[in-house]
Predict the structure.
Amino acid sequence: MLTKRFPPEEKYSLVDQVRRSSRSVAANVAEAWRRRRYEASFVNKLNTAEAEATETQTWIEFARRCGYLSPDECGNLDGCYDRIVGQLVNMMRDAKNWVLVDVPLPRTPK
């Protein structure tokens, strides 16, 4: 993990922010997937994932400017996140293709 190379004084600031926002992308996509019965809820969670991905890009840029990541490392990560954001935008735009239609809700046992 690249953040392990960051200086110790960044452990509770930049490192935590990068890890939190990057993990949040995956968590929000997973939650969106579980909410795909409801288009608005699905899109909302994808939108949150997109925001977290762009936040991660911002922290990565901070790390580059502080000299903790090389320009090449930053460029590679930024490119990955650009692709992720693009995929999320496409999923939101085409949400009707992803949501479940006419799927009965699970029944609770009596």
User: Anything to note?
Assistant: Helices lie at 11-34, 39-65, 71-93. The radius of gyration is 17 Å.
